[in-house]
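Researcher: Please predict.
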Amino acid sequence: MSKVILYHNPSCSKSREAVAALKSEGVDLEVIEYLKSPLSEQELLSVLNKLGGDEEAAALVRTKEPAFRDHKFNVDTKASVAKNLAKVPRLMERPLALYNGRAAIGRPLENILAIVRVDGTEVKPADKPSTESTQTAAAEPAAGATPAGAAPPSRGRGKVSAPATDVDAEAAAAINKKASTKLATKPATESKHADAGRVTRSGRTTSK
């Protein structure tokens, strides 16, 4: 793994955030306090070439600093910027990161993380979704769902229907037999009562 070089100013909150973020990434990090160890003109030219040359030269200069009014210079060319930042290093924008031939200014911080993560090799495992967890979640049915191949529960007032058994079949057969016996004996009884209750024309009841 290549080393990430961060040009840092500890008094700058953005710069401190960059240090913390890179440490959390677990990269091989070298922090350089550029006010104590300023970049040379040649080093600054190299940085500017990595940033994009003349088009990005102004981005490396803190033009809103009061010191810039005292040391105004042309910020449209990398040669002018490199020459003047070597003289007045506090006007260099921070945090500045170098990694694998690329450079980025951490405003926003994502610019630095983008060049560090570009290969995908520096991203911590915690940043990637777990394949095992994803497969487990997909295999587990949702709460209340009916597993594949299983019969759905009965909707009869919350009760679940039980499968028919041999005992149930025998009981049903016995009930049907009893009902048939009653139906067979009922006509004979009714006929007997009907004969006993016949009335003659004279109004008298006859009996056999």
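Model: The beta strands are 4-8, 29-33, 96-99, 102-105.
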